From TrEMBL:
InterPro entries with a match to the protein in the record: ABC_Transporter_SBP (IPR050902), ABC_transptr_periplasmic_BD (IPR002491), Vit_B12_bind_prot (IPR054828)
Domain Fe/B12 periplasmic-binding: 38-287
CDD domains found in the cross-reference section: BtuF
Record keywords: Signal
Domain of life: Bacteria
Name of the molecule in the record: Cobalamin binding protein BtuF
Entries under Pfam families matching the protein: Peripla_BP_2 (PF01497)
Signal peptide: 1-18
Single GO biological process annotation from the record: cellular response to iron ion
Keyword Kinase tagged: no
Length: 293
């Protein structure tokens, strides 16, 4: 009788023990009855983070441009991150959808939750947030060993870059996302944290919007010593060199107009440290040109 009671008690306790209760980056509580086995990613960086956390095999759907690593290219598509195909998501029968706060529309994941599909919102705003996302995704998908190791490696590389560059003489930087409209980032953006890591100072850190539109006059008034552009692909955008018509601009005088491919600086993944390495080296070049050793 005692043995039967013990077995019954253990069986009842198992679901509670397996339950996951998490707080996402929107401050919402997300409860999963068990680690997720079928995950739909609504942003390319989320897909990449899941693979880095050892959970790539559990991703059953992803949005357009989820192209890293190569295995991600084979995952069924559910539209773009701004135009998610809800029917396609539901058809995949996910036990969790991971959304991007800045990229997906709130009504998209609100609708999914009304259909009984849990949604976890991801929004890294700092380099440490990337490491924490890896750890969290490892918990979500029951791959903690791979995820924790990836997070440790990420933090170690970040710390090495900080040790080498963070205390170097500050360099005023304008990061240009696009030219029409002319867009940049404020101090709450992850890329601004990368600038700080490299000893850079974001000239538009004080603006209230995460990715604000600015005027050409505002850039000239901010007098950046370095301009870094991203563009849309692996090629340097032609519009970066349009700044050369302003010969008195410090970034032009110093010939400090640089390009970093967006996939290694604008994605909130471990590869952002590849972009950080490039940015740190570019800022160091600017210091050397200016004789600031």
């Amino acid at each position: 009788m005692k043995k039967a009671f013990f077995l019954l008690f253990a069986a009842l306790a198992l679901p509670a023990a397996a339950e996951l209760r998490l707080t996402d980056d929107a401050g919402r509580t997300v409860v999963l009855a068990a680690p997720a086995q079928r995950i739909v990613s609504l942003a390319p960086h989320v897909t990449e983070l899941l693979f880095a956390a050892g959970a790539g095999g559990k991703v059953v759907g992803a949005t357009q441009y989820s192209d890293y690593p190569d295995a991600a290219k084979k995952i069924p598509r559910v539209g773009g991150y701004t135009s998610v195909d809800m029917e396609a998501v539901v058809a995949l029968k996910p036990d969790l959808v991971i959304a991007w706060k800045s990229g997906n529309r709130n009504q998209q994941y609100d609708r999914l939750e009304k259909l009984g599909i849990p949604v976890f919102v991801n929004e890294p705003r700092s380099l440490d947030d990337v490491a924490r996302a890896l750890e969290t995704f490892g918990r979500i998908a029951a791959t903690p060993r791979e995820a924790d190791e990836a997070a440790r490696a990420f933090r170690a590389r970040r710390d090495a870059l900080a040790k080498q560059y963070a205390a170097r003489p500050p360099v005023a930087v304008f990061y240009q996302i696009w030219n029409k409209p002319l867009m940049t980032i404020n101090g709450q953006h992850l890329i601004s944290d990368v600038m700080t890591l490299c000893g850079g100072r974001n000239v538009f850190a004080g603006l209230p919007i995460l990715a604000p539109t600015v005027t050409e006059e505002a850039v000239l008034a901010a007098a950046p010593e370095v301009i870094v552009a991203s563009g849309m692909g692996e090629s340097r955008p032609e519009w970066l060199d349009a700044w050369r018509r302003w010969a008195a601009l410090p970034a032009v005088k110093g010939d400090n107009l640089y390009f970093i491919p967006p996939e290694i600086l604008q994605r909130h993944t471990p590869r952002i440290l590849d972009g950080a390495q490039k940015l740190c080296e570019q800022l160091e070049q600017a210091r050397q040109k200016a004789g600031r050793k």
